[in-house]
Write a structure and sequence with these properties.
It catalyses: D-fructose + ATP = D-fructose 6-phosphate + ADP + H(+); a D-hexose + ATP = a D-hexose 6-phosphate + ADP + H(+). This protein is of the alpha/beta class and 501 residues long. It has 16 helices and 13 strands. The strands form three sheets. It has a six-stranded mixed sheet with strand order 1-11-10-9-12-13, with helices on both faces. It has a five-stranded mixed sheet with strand order 4-3-2-5-8. A two-stranded antiparallel ribbon has the order 6-7. The structure holds alpha-D-glucopyranose.
Length: 501
């Protein structure tokens, strides 16, 4: 062999060795990657397993809900379900008349409304409203700061009355929808039990919320009377009944979740007030605080709860409602980033920020039907600064959205079944074929279509075809404010007392 040939052979051997080394590196990399992938998939599978809501589990949850309802009605503190007496013993009839205001506070926004009620079957006339977001610092500040901000906004809204107030010599009247747990002491007074949904204003707890609002109204030069204080579920029930006499229950699936329903007064042992003439009383369940050993809870839920402003409370709410679904998803993604390098070698820093992933964004990803799952990619980029995700990874994210949202939706139908059972409306024989209408409101139900579809189909599945036909879910659009105005009207200070015969 000449020198040239020897050199060629040496080169050839070296090239072959290099190629072999390169191939080995690719294989190693693939194996490493598939190791990561396998780890990530193990996290997904474990989540799916722990969040499982087979029908038998849902039936147990529904039964536990019914049992807790009985316990909460029996005695004060008898259950995690507060079963609060609302003092609403007469729901709207259609006779309500006049110009009324409402104030709806309970989430990240509040609304002020002006409603003209036609009276005697004429329905609701002109409605005007304004929605204002609550600056986050006011959600954890002082009671005066929050109520002054609201009173100021209300004052400006009142000033936009076009034709002036039609009842000279009278104060304007207001229905106050305050969507937190309140111990009512009358239809127009009650003390705050605790905050939920990210509010935490210590000096308001135990205070009469109408008193606090009234003081703020006076400080801001407004002579208004609060004639009804209601929870959003109670307001939704009232407006639902105004339009449809078969409404028996209202459920909110929004930032928080809760339900109210019409109970027989003699089925409320803890009620020692005068027996209502209607024989009925609306109960605000505060079901967000429901807990049962049958609830499918995961490590992510437990950590979210421990780190929340209200640990140990509102567990049902924390696995169902809009404030929390996106946050649960973020926690799962963080674990996948940390333990399985799901987004590459480093953990995306933004993924560590609590509540950065909001439920509306999760919903947008979940509903992405584009071929490349473009919305998922864009959301990851815009919110978490995660780029270049593979299609496979995006598909996994959709699966996670599905697991978390489906659990919440199915559990909320189990809650509704619990109420129907308590009212004996869950079977044809007991219900006598009567229609039962459930008024449903809240942004989660309204905008997260896969959530609402799953909730409705699960309820049908739980009830069975025959009875499902007599249970109707009716969307109520922002009924809680109108409901408060209707109740302010039926409890107006200026209503003439019926003449004595
Ligand atoms: C929270 C509140 C409750 C309210 C619900 C829906 O659970 O405690 O009062 O009805 O959110 O807004």
């Amino acid at each position: 062999m000449g020198k040239k040939e020897v050199a060629l052979v040496v080169c050839g051997v070296a090239a072959a060795a290099l190629a072999a080394a390169g191939a080995a590196a690719v294989v190693r990399r693939q194996m490493w990657k598939s190791g990561r992938w396998a780890k990530a998939m193990a996290i997904v599978n474990e989540l799916e397993d722990k969040c499982g809501t087979p029908i038998t589990r849902l039936r147990h949850v529904a039964e536990a809900m019914t049992v807790e309802m009985h316990a909460g009605l029996a005695s004060e503190g008898g259950s995690k379900l507060k079963m609060l007496v609302s003092y609403v013993d007469n729901l709207p009839t259609g006779d309500e008349e006049g110009l009324f205001y409402a104030l709806d506070l309970g989430g990240t926004n509040f609304r002020v409304l002006r409603v003209h009620l036609g009276g005697q079957g004429k329905g609701v006339g002109k409605q005007e409203f304004q929605e204002v977001s609550i600056p986050p610092h006011l959600m954890t500040g002082t009671s005066d700061a929050l109520f002054d901000y609201i009173a100021e906004t209300l004052g400006k809204f009142v000033a936009t009355e076009e034709e002036g107030y039609p009842f000279p010599g009278r104060d304007r009247e207001l229905g106050f929808t305050f969507s937190f747990p309140v111990n009512q002491t009358s239809i127009a007074s009650g003390t705050l039990i605790r905050w939920t949904k990210g509010f935490s204003i210590e000096d308001a707890i135990g205070e009469d919320v109408v008193g606090e609002l009234t003081k703020a109204l006076r400080r801001n030069g407004l002579d208004m009377q609060v004639t009804a204080l209601v929870n959003d579920t109670v307001g939704t029930l009232a407006s639902g009944r105004y339009y449809n006499p078969d409404v028996i229950c209202a459920v909110i699936l929004g930032t928080g979740t809760n339900a109210a329903y019409v109970e027989r007064a003699n089925a409320i042992p803890k009620w020692h007030g005068p027996p209502p003439s209607s024989g009925e009383m609306v109960i605000n369940m505060e079901w967000g605080n429901f807990w049962s050993s049958h609830l499918p809870l995961t490590e992510y839920d437990l950590a979210l709860d421990t780190e929340s402003l209200n640990p140990g409370e509102q567990i049902f709410e924390k696995i169902i409602s809009g404030m929390y679904l996106g946050e649960i998803l973020r926690r799962v993604l963080l674990r996948m980033a940390e333990d399985a390098a799901f987004f590459g070698d480093t953990v995306p820093p933004k993924l560590k920020i609590p509540f950065i992933l909001r439920t509306p964004d999760m919903s947008a990803m979940h509903h992405d039907e584009s071929r490349d799952l473009e919305v998922v990619g864009k959301k990851l980029q815009a919110i978490l600064e995660i780029s270049n995700t593979s299609l496979e990874a995006r598909k996994v994210i959709i699966k996670l959205c599905d697991i978390v949202a489906t659990r919440g939706a199915r559990l909320s139908s189990a809650g509704i079944l619990g109420i129907l059972k308590k009212l004996e409306r869950d079977n044809i024989t007991a219900s006598g074929g009567q229609k039962s209408v459930i008024a449903l409101d809240g942004g989660l139900f309204e905008h997260y279509m896969k959530f609402s579809a799953s909730m409705e189909s699960t309820l049908k599945e739980l009830l069975g075809e025959e009875i499902a036909n007599s249970i109707v879910i009716e969307r109520s659009n922002d009924g809680s404010g109108i409901g408060a105005a209707l109740l302010a009207a039926s409890h107006s200070t200026y209503l003439q007392a019926p003449e004595e015969s």
